[in-house]
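re: ur question from earlier - yeah i can do the single chain one, its not a big deal. heres the input i used so u can compare w yours
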Amino acid sequence: MDTLSTANVEFCLDVFKELSSNHVGENVFFSPVSLLYALSMLFLGARGNSAAQMGKVLHFSYVEGSSHPGLENSSKCDLTGGIHLELPALFSQISRSDSNSTLGIANKLYGTKNIEFHPGRIVPVQMMHQIGTFKVAFIKELQMQILELPYASGNLSMIVLLPKDTDQIEQIEKQLNLKTFNQWTNSLMTEREVDVLFPRFKLGIKYELNSLLKALGITDIFDNLKADLSGLSPSRELYLSKVIHESFVDVNEEGTEASAATGDVVVVKRLPIRDRFIADHPFLFFIKHIYTNTILFCGRFSSP
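and the output i got, formated as tokens:
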């Protein structure tokens, strides 16, 4: 499932960069795993150039010996025991809810006969406060703090990329790729005691993604003359007309680990030095399923 996890991260960052450039200064939020799953259902029915474009954009990894009909001449395709088996197994693991977090993902294919927060602006925001031991990192060249906030269940966590200044967030976005993301959020992180101030927020955003997917390289399936979805239907008139994607998140104390903020009061002569993480300006965030290392949601919080 590591291959699918890698595809998930790369696809997530590609989509995020497109959304970010199209919505400068705005909140951005989407579910890469949901979008990946929906498009993969089409991919399994795609043939020829339609399949090649989708496979490239979705970052599905392949080896010699194609088993995907329509890509027999490609040296990079082997779906035997691949995504059509891995995706249901992945969703079975990440869709389990618990008392502290609930994840709902729905995908449908519809067929028819004939998808400072702003410069100079101060906005009051309800902040959550907790002190505890968390995984953190500081990227000196980007002046960026990184914090991983676990959910109480232990199954999910939120990774937050916080620039020192608001105007540095664009530089962070430009440097985001699979290598830097894995480095920043894994090998460079250490556990430290942190004083965290983090906003409560709700985001619900709906996108039509036709133009975004075309910009990434999926074009033929939107063209009624070029689309080849013959794996879904013998009709050569079948094509994708619209991709609609909607996501919602509610971040509050109940879903995150808050136990570190409670307990007995201990009087000490000297307070320990601890890091401070104050998210009072725009940041990027990723909600991931820890066991499968899958990014469930990705966003940029620019304004409440």
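Residues 68 and 79 are 6 Å apart (CA to CA). not sure if urs matches, ping me
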